[in-house]
Structure of Major facilitator superfamily (MFS) profile domain-containing protein:
Amino acid sequence: MEKLWRPLGHLFLTFFLYNFGTFMVAPTITDVTMFAVCPHQPECSIAIYLTGFQQAVIGLGTLFMMPLVGNLSDRYGRKALLTLPMSLSIIPLAILAYSRSRNFFYAYYVLKTITSMVCEGSVQCLALAYVADNVPVRRRAAAFGILSGIGSAAFVCGTFIARFLSTASTFQVATAVAIAGTVYMRIFLPDVAVEESLKTPILCRGKEKIVADFPNEISPIKSEQIFKSRPSLRDMLTMLQSSKIFTQAAVVAFFLSLSDAGFQASVTYYLKAEFHFNKDQFADLMVISGVAGTVSQIFLYSVAWSFWVPYAASMLSIFFVFSQPCMRAIVSKQVGSCEQGKAQGCISGISSFANVVAPLVFSPLSALFLSDNAPFDFPGFSIMCVGFAMMVAFVQSLMIRVPPPIAEERVDNPNHVDSYA
C-alpha cells in the first residue's frame, strides 16, 4: 500500500475531492428537480423525461469526447487535461448553491448538460491512465482497485454528510470542495510525461516509422492540431480488433454502463413515487449502497413492495465494486505505455454510448409503469430489465480468459506475434 501511495497519493486525494463534491448533491437533485418542474407532486413524468433526455445528450457528447480526452492526455499530459473537467464541474454546482428556483434550475440543467459532455467520466478515465503511467503492469489491478475504493469512499462520505445538511448548504459545500479539489490538483499533482521511447504495435508503429524516416526532422505528429488528435473510427476499430480480450471487455463495459445508467434513470423516481422518499432517505440508501456495493439491489428493487426492502437490498450487494477495476486492469494490460489514455478513453466512449441508449429505453419504461396507464401493475418493471442487462454483462465476463500481459512483451520483442489478435 505504501509503495502505491507514494507516487499516487496526490492523485488519490484529488480523485477523492472531485467525487466527494460530485456525489454529495446526488441525494438532493431529485427533490430539486421535482420542486422546480412539478412542485408538490409525488410523481412527475416530465421530470423523468427531462432527466432521461439529459443523460442521453451527455452520453452522446461523452461518446465523442472520451477518446479525444484520452488521446490528448497521451500527448499533452494527464494534469493538463484533468484541469478542464474539474474546472467545468464547478459551474453547475455554483448555480444551485446560489438559488434553486425554477429559472436557476433550468440554467443549471442546460449548463450541467453542456459541461458534463466533457466532465462525465473524464476524471476517472484520466485518473486510470495516470495510475497506468506510474504503476507496473503486475500491480495495476491492485492500484485500480484502490482508486475505485477511494471513489466509493468519496461516495459514502459525500452522501453521509449530505444527510445532515440542508439542500442549500449541500450545494454550497459541494461547490467549495470542487474548487478545493481543482486548486489542490493544480498545485500538488505532479505531471508525468509519456516517454517518447515507449511504443506499442497497435497504433504506434506508424509513429516509429516516421521517426525512423525523419530522424533529424521535426515529427509531423507534433505539429498536428489539437482536434486532429481525436482517434479516427479506424483507430478505435483497430484497437478493438487488436485483441479478443479487449473486445470482450468492451462488451462487458457496454452492458455494465447500460444497467448502471438505466438504474440511475429509474430508481430515484420509483422510490419517490412508491415510498415518497426525500433527500435524507435517499442519502441513507446511498450510504448503505456505497458501503456494501450495488448488485443485488438491482433485482430486489424491482419487487420492493415493503418500505424497508430497499435498505435491506443495499446491504446484500457486495461484489459489483470489483467489476470496474478488474475490467480496466484487463484493458490496461492489452496496450503499451503510449496508449493508456487512448485505451481507457475507448472503453469510456463505449460506456458513454450505453449512457445514450439507457435513458432512451428506461426513462419511458419508468414513466409508463409509474403512471396510471401502465399495461399491468409492476412499478419496478424497468428495474427488472436493468437486472437483465447486468446478467448479460456477467455472462460475457465469464467468457474472458486473460493470458499473461502481452503489451510489454511486444515492446521488448517487436517480432512477437499476438495470437489473440
About this structure: Residues 195-229, 293-308, 310-318, 406-421 have pLDDT under 50 and may be disordered. The first helix runs from residue 2 to 24. The CA atoms of residues 363 and 402 lie 36 Å apart.
